[in-house]
Amino acid sequence: MRIPAHSVCTAIRDDIVSGVYERGSRLTEELLARRYGVSRVPVREALRTLESEGFVVTRRHAGACVAEPTEQEAADLLEVRMLLEPLGAARAAQRRTEAHLKVLRGLVRLGQERARRGEGEDLRSLGGWFHETLAQASGSPGLIALLTQLRHKIAWMYAVEQPARPVDSWAEHGAIVDAVARGDAEQARALTAQHAERAAGAHRLRRPDRPGRRTAPPPRVSSSQHGVNIAGARH
After folding, report:
1. How confident is the model at residue 226 (pLDDT cuts 50, 70, 90)?
2. What total of structural domains would you count in the chain?
3. Are both 99 and 168 inside the same structural domain?
4. What is the rounded CA–CA span in Å between residue 70 and residue 232?
5. Are residues 62 and 75 in the same domain?
6. What is the pTM of this model?
7. Which DSSP string corresponds to 110-158?
8. Domain range holding 52?
9. Are 158 and 52 contained in the same domain?
10. Helical H runs in the chain?
11. Do 96 and 230 meet the contact criterion of CB atoms below 8 Å apart?
């Protein structure tokens, strides 16, 4: 069975974001194909996609390499996200479904519970799921794709500190959902802009590690995709 290029692309992107491949390191088709257990064809397609996303660059005499973003490029990403996330929330207030609201409210309940218990790692995952679902509720494929790409690149370039008062942070999430549920686009936009601005202050640039420090066992790429399941989220 042929493994689709987007599955290979996801696997390589995840490894770049997690630091398996250091910035500036070469990405050869042969080694990547062997690592992920696929042919070179989906690897080649995946590298083209990752280059269009800014994770990979092609250098003369070196071929495909992991990109090395500048501090200004990293700062621009946060600024762009602070513009797009409020737009997504405003559209979500106009286009969300009951299924989206059910997931968002469930995530807020879980987030508030975990915040009271001080379970930081769970909060990080729940926060990512919350913002992904909010973007999906916008009903705009182009905007969803942009926000997804921004999320991956920001996770690659930044480490995020936990908020000093996570209970307050999840109260902000709850207020955003309330505005979306009421269909109040302007309030959803304003609350999300305030939340995004505060969250940006918790981001700290990652400093590239020395080459060769990280290793990982060769993964196999699954042909199945695991998007957010709007109908099947647990509460």
Report:
1. very low
2. 2
3. yes
4. 40
5. no
6. 0.79
7. HHHHHHHHT-HHHHHHHHHHHHHHHHHTT--HHHHHHHHHHHHHHHHHE
8. 5-66
9. no
10. 5-18, 29-36, 40-53, 71-95, 98-117, 120-136, 141-157, 166-182, 185-200
11. no
- Cα–Cα dist 111/141, whole Å: 27
Percent of the chain scoring above 70 in pLDDT: 86
- Are residues 95 and 32 part of one domain? no
pLDDT at 81 over 70: yes
* pLDDT, tens digit, 9 for 90 and up, residues 149-196: 999 999 999 988 877 788 999 999 999 999 999 999 999 999 999 999
Task: For residue 217, name the pLDDT band (cuts at 50, 70, 90).
Answer: very low
CATH at 36? 1.10.10.10
Could you identify the residue written with the tokens 């307050």?
168
- Regarding whether 166 and 120 lie in a shared domain, the answer is yes
CB burial readout 182-210, b (16+ within 10 A) else e = eebbebbbbbbbebbeebbeebeeeeeee
